[in-house]
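Researcher: Structure for this, please.
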Amino acid sequence: MGGTPEQRARLRIDAMLQRAGLPGAAGAQRRPETEAEGKAWRRINRLVTRIAPGVKALSPVLAGSGVRLDWIDDQDGLFGAHQLSDGTLRAIALVTALARPTSSSRAS
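Model: Predicted structure, token format:
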């Protein structure tokens, strides 16, 4: 895999968001379509802020044909996922996979 560390991090994050089904990942910068997606998004953000105290909120952004995961710190600064540690990124992936809406709750 070529490119700069930032480019490689963005590719990994794009793939992670799409595999995990992060609410809003397929259409970043849109409102969750269902109540279940909205609840899942709020739950994911709440859990991430508990495990990564410097992260105030996650902010997925459309980037070309993929999605880039930006984050906002507690002083409202905007940063890229490449500025998070590997452990924090893995924790976000795990929280996202476990807190996303199930297929039965998406249908409601």
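Researcher: Any notable elements?
Model: Residues 5-102 form one domain. The chain has one domain: 5-102.
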